[in-house]
UniProtKB/TrEMBL annotation:
Annotated coiled-coil segments of the chain: none
Pfam annotation, one family: NB-ARC
Native species: Kitasatospora griseola
Positions of the OmpR/PhoB-type domain: 1-103
DNA-binding region: 1-103
GO biological process, one term: phosphorelay signal transduction system
SMART domains: BTAD, TPR, Trans_reg_C
Keyword field: DNA-binding, Repeat, Transcription, Transcription regulation, Two-component regulatory system
Listed InterPro entries: AfsR-DnrI-RedD_regulator, Apaf_helical, BTAD, NB-ARC, OmpR/PhoB-type_DNA-bd, P-loop_NTPase, Sig_transdc_resp-reg_C-effctor, TPR-like_helical_dom_sf
Protein name: OmpR/PhoB-type domain-containing protein
Length: 964
């Protein structure tokens, strides 16, 4: 070795696999981690290193020992014992809670290398070029392979990179001297090998071009340049040095004879850095889920695009786990960024975000720049920062950014770096960034997180309570972790007890706190940065118990114009305080809605809240009436492209309408007249059993509220609506009671329309109970009232119902006339009433024996009802078609039609399902499939008995007896 023997005869090698000798005897340096400990001390001979510094450099953070201090003490004991066996005195000493290795610097080959390179630099400066080349050759001979080959730990990785770079710098300088002084073919061979081994170092390529040029081989020089151009182009790089050299070669620049002269290496030759910057916070040991997000970020950051800095920006609500995800990914990518990982909390959610100049100063310090060399000016700091990181493979985590303007100065210019940004805001104007919006966890991931904190045994023992806790937490990782921490701190508390505590929205945020962790302060940070207008909007938009709002709904709540409202909504979306799952749809995270409502209770006067709901109620009632008119009369005249669009719009708004109606029942300041108008509109278009039940329940609440307030008109209409919905739900006895109660309230000339509507419903109810005479009496009175009111459509629909009852009584001529009059009054334009009118006509024509026209009308309206989403009428029409086929003796067609209608009838239930099953059973009997026929008829009988439809039940019993 070049190193002179130390006073104790010791010498150590870092420029290759770690080794040590005492004289000619090789030292036993122990296992790899012990060697890493020794290497870290040898890199700083005579300097004390703290236990913390040694631990961070020796131990892999992904697999640290249980007690790092004890592990280091064991390594120190073994190294000290080996050194004592070969040298007098205590070379490894314990000082100030750390360790120092007292060996002379000249005992370490890396120090000898630096001293030889420094002497070569001095020789170059003095013009002694041959002497400089010889000194560099001696320095390079000290390298015996990869520095610290095979040693683990962050320090070994950084020292390995540093020593390798120093060797390559020295090799460039020595090869440059070889070209200048003339070393013949051996220089070409070595340069060619260097280019192959280190293709990114342009200096090797330049020297090879120059050597070919000076050897009078211009074609080879040009080939080296062309190969370099192709390589750098593929990598998205440029190299001005090679371009300039090529131009000089082509014009035979006479100064090229001295172009290989190397720049004097004036870099300091002090000790190598003891660690790469490793500033990432510790990752959560129980990090759970986010598999797709982890994969997406890992792929983006580990495979950068050529020529561009990779920037991945994670945005989301406070507490959604942005930092945890970023830190987890940063640790997972450690091997991709051997030059270190920088981290800074930009405090973007706080009142005073971190000045980017401060962040730059911290980064530059971590990268080894002395305080005195850090400029005061922000632009100069940013420029120095970009210069310092150039060529380094660094991961830079910019956590909790306030906005793009704070992030921009912290972006590197080198494509070898990657940047990971987290922010509560959507950094949409950050150039070149790939955005990852982070939402609440999936149900299974949130349950896994709770189990990781609490223990799987406890969540498995109370699965329902665990699910309730996760739901109450809105699957927000912070909330789930806080809830889990409370349970973990109290092993005796059941999950059911905590779930019960979290069930009350009024106290939920208070319950989601444990020691220093709490959900409410995290949300409050975002709220505090809003403008007054944005904060008011957030509070008011949280009021309705509906999953989503549209821009027009929001405008009504906020009492703002369309453009101002949209700007507010989009600003809140950008800040991740509102979610926008689809165009023109806006909603809240559950816990944020709870928070916004609490702030509203504290800051908004009750009168202003009532006024906001009144505006929303007015808008919903007017818009719903427009949709009803579009469906029943003229789509184009009410802002809808089609009847289907109008009915779909009403269906989608069920949750919002329910929320508004329920609020009106609780708030005396809201108009029940307007509320029942909205309710009545909802009842005019039927979508299925669940919808019918919802409207019936709401009508009951409105009727009770109206009765309590003495509002007879509102009560009467609410009872009428409820009666109609109960009828559609096959609750005939309850429907009749509700409708008769409504009729008793319709005792004035201003309630004729409601009286007529109620009589129509009573007639339909009587028909279901097979009391056809009572039905005819109610329906004739209703038709006369609608005629008096000049409401042709309503009169037509009543006549259609009347015609069916007349036909059942054998009054076929009267029935046909009434049905044809119904179709005439309702069929003036394509609409829901037109389809219903033709359905009534088809039904009567069937009873009159006109099966062909009856089938034509029925098949036409079946497609219309399917398009409108009117499930009850779709099922009824399917049942009618099957019955027509049965009457015509087309038994197989009957079975096909009945089987097609049966799934829809089952969704509606009751009478319709029984009717379809009966028809199917009759057809199967005639086809000889008696076993299946018996099953269908028995199921139909069960429905009729439950509904107390004695006549229908008796007829089916007769059919079953026939089978027996």
């Amino acid at each position: 070795m070049e190193t002179a023997a130390a006073p104790q005869g010791l010498r150590f090698r870092l420029l290759g696999p770690l080794a040590g000798w005492a004289g000619e005897q090789r030292l036993e340096l122990g296992r790899r981690q012990q060697q890493a400990f020794l290497a870290m001390l040898l890199a700083a001979p005579g300097r004390a290193l703290t236990v913390e510094r040694l631990g961070s450099g020796v131990f892999d953070e992904d697999n640290p020992p249980g007690n790092p201090r004890s592990a280091l003490a064991t390594h120190a004991y073994r190294v000290r014992r080996e050194l004592r066996n070969h040298a007098a005195g205590h070379l490894l000493v314990t000082v100030d809670g750390g360790y120092r290795l007292d060996v002379p610097a000249e005992a370490v080959d890396a120090v000898a290398f630096d001293r030889l390179v420094a002497r070569a630099g001095e020789a170059l400066a003095a013009g002694e070029r041959t002497g400089a080349r010889d000194l560099l050759a001696r320095a390079l001979d000290l390298h015996r392979g990869e520095p610290l080959a095979g040693l683990p730990g962050p320090h070994a990785a950084e020292l390995r990179r540093h020593l390798t770079e120093r060797r390559l710098d020295a090799l460039e300088t020595r090869l440059g001297l070889d070209v200048e002084l003339g070393s013949g073919p051996s220089c070409l061979v070595e340069l060619d090998q260097a280019v192959f081994a280190h293709p990114y170092r342009a200096r090797f390529r330049a020297l090879l071009m120059l050597e070919y040029h000076l050897s009078d081989r211009p074609e080879e020089a040009r080939a080296v340049y062309e190969d370099a151009r192709r390589f750098y182009l593929a990598e998205g790089l440029t190299c001005e040095e090679l371009d300039a050299l090529d131009r000089r070669i082509r014009r035979a620049d006479p100064s090229l004879a001295t172009a290989a002269r190397p720049v004097v290496d004036r870099r300091p030759t002090g000790p190598a850095p003891t660690a790469v910057p490793e500033q990432l916070p510790a990752r959560l040991p129980d990090f759970t889920g986010r598999r797709a997000d982890v994969a997406r970020l890992t792929e983006a950051l580990s495979h950068p695009d050529p020529g561009a800095v990779v920037i991945s920006a994670i945005n989301g609500l406070g507490g959604v786990g942005k930092t945890s995800l970023a830190v987890h990914v940063g640790h997972a990518l450690r091997g991709h960024f051997p030059d270190g990982r920088l981290h800074v909390d930009l405090r973007g959610a706080q009142a005073a975000p971190l000045d980017p100049a401060e962040a730059l100063a911290a980064f530059l310090t971590a990268l080894g720049v002395a305080d005195r060399d850090i400029p005061a000016d922000l632009a100069e700091r940013a420029a120095l920062y970009r210069t310092t990181v150039t060529g380094r493979r660094l991961l830079i985590l910019l956590d909790n950014a306030a906005g793009p303007e704070q992030v921009a100065p912290l972006l590197p210019g080198s494509r070898t770096c990657a940047v990971l940004v987290t922010s509560r805001a959507w950094l949409s104007t950050l150039p070149g960034a790939r955005h990852l919006p982070l939402d609440a966890m999936a149900d299974d991931e949130a349950l896994d997180l709770l189990a990781a904190v609490v223990g799987r045994a406890r969540t498995d023992a109370e699965p329902a309570a665990a699910a309730a806790i996760v739901t109450a937490c809105g699957r927000l990782p912070l909330a789930v972790r806080v809830a889990g921490s409370r349970l973990a701190a109290d092993p005796g508390q059941s999950l059911a007890d905590l779930a019960a505590s979290l069930a009350d929205e009024r106290t939920r945020l208070g319950e989601l706190a444990h020691e220093q962790a709490a959900v409410e302060p995290v949300l409050a940070l975002s709220y505090a940065r809003l403008t007054e207008e944005q904060a008011r909007a957030l509070r008011l938009l949280a009021l309705p118990d509906a999953p989503e709002l549209g821009p027009a709904d929001a405008a009504a709540l906020l009492d703002r114009g369309p453009e101002q409202t949209r700007d507010l909504l989009e600003a809140l979306v950008d800040l991740n305080l509102l979610q926008s799952p689809a165009a023109d749809r806006y909603g809240f995270h559950d816990l944020l809605k709870v928070f916004a409502r609490q702030r509203g209770a504290e800051q908004d006067a009750p009168a202003s809240v009532t006024a906001a709901f009144a505006r929303l109620l007015d808008f919903c009632a007017a818009a719903a009436r427009d949709a009803e008119n579009a469906a029943h009369r003229d789509p184009d005249g009410h802002g809808f492209a089609s009847i289907e669009e109008a009915t779909a719009w009403l269906r989608e708004r069920t949750a919002l309408h329910r929320a508004v109606i329920q609020r009106a029942c609780r708030d005396d300041g809201l108009s029940l007249a307007r509320t029942v108008d909205l309710l009545d509109t909802m009842s005019s278009i039927l979508f299925g059993r669940g919808y019918v039940t919802t409207v019936a329940d709401l009508a009951g609440q409105v009727a009770a509220a109206a009765e309590a307030r003495g509002e007879r008109d509102a009560e009467a209409l609410a009872r009428s609506v409820r009666g109609g919905m109960l009828w559609h739900a096959n609750s005939y006895a309850e429907a009749g009671e509700e409708l008769r109660g409504c009729l008793a309230l319709c005792d004035g000339p201003d309630r004729l329309t409601l009286r007529a509507d109620t009589l129509k419903l009573l007639g339909a109810n009587a028909r279901a109970l097979r009391d056809f005479e009572q039905a005819v009496g109610c329906l004739e009175e209703a038709a006369a009232l609608f005629r008096q009111l000049s409401d042709d459509t309503a009169e037509g629909l009543v006549l259609g119902e009347l015609a069916f009852n007349q036909a059942q009584l054998g009054q076929l001529p009267q029935a046909r006339a009434a049905a044809e009059r119904c179709a005439s009054l309702t069929g003036r334009q394509v609409s829901i009433p037109e389809s219903v009118g033709r359905y009534y006509l088809a039904r009567v024509l069937h009873l009159c024996g006109d099966l062909g026209p009856a089938l034509d009308h029925a098949e036409y309206v079946l497609e219309r009802f399917r398009a409108f989403g009117m499930l009850a009428f779709q099922a009824a029409t399917g049942s009618l078609i099957a019955r027509i086929h049965l009457t015509a003796g087309r038994d197989r067609a009957t079975v096909r039609a009945a089987e097609e209608a049966l799934p829809h009838a089952r969704q509606v239930g009751g009478l319709l399902e029984g009717a379809v099953l009966r028809t199917l059973g009759e057809a199967l009997v005639r086809l000889g499939h008696t076993d299946r026929a018996r099953i269908c008829l028995q199921q139909a009988l069960g429905h009729f008995r439950r509904l107390e439809l004695t006549g229908d039940a008796t007829e089916v019993e007769e059919l079953l007896r026939g089978l027996a």
